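User: I'm curious whether this sequence folds into something compact or stays loose and floppy. Could you predict its structure so I can see for myself?
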Amino acid sequence: MEKIREGTPTLRILLGAAVALGPGKAALLEAVNQTGSISGAAREMGMSYRRAWKLIEAMNFDFKSPLVMTNAGGSGGGGAQVTPAGFDALKRYRSMEEKAGQAVRKEIYEFSELLRPSVKS
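Assistant: Here's the prediction. I'll summarize afterward.
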């Protein structure tokens, strides 16, 4: 899982009662894309398979189109793929995250100047 870069805001998109997308779900989508499975993504992120499955289930429920499609296991093995809708949501989220970071870059620097040096390092 990618560590949050120092001095960048964390973006969490809240629409209605649920979190539509935030840093954890975005990282999970990227991990599913990289590993090709929910279990592989969960291992990479240090979370339980059940937790990863529940997050994917929530995303698939919240969006009009599923963000991740799964294939049943068996002799050929299962797997999971990020769908075009998933790639679109992830691209839009990362774009908003970048724009938010650029918009508050100066304020983040000024805020960091209020911290003790030992906290900043």
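Summary: The chain has one domain: 13-120. Confidence is low (pLDDT under 50) at residues 1-5.
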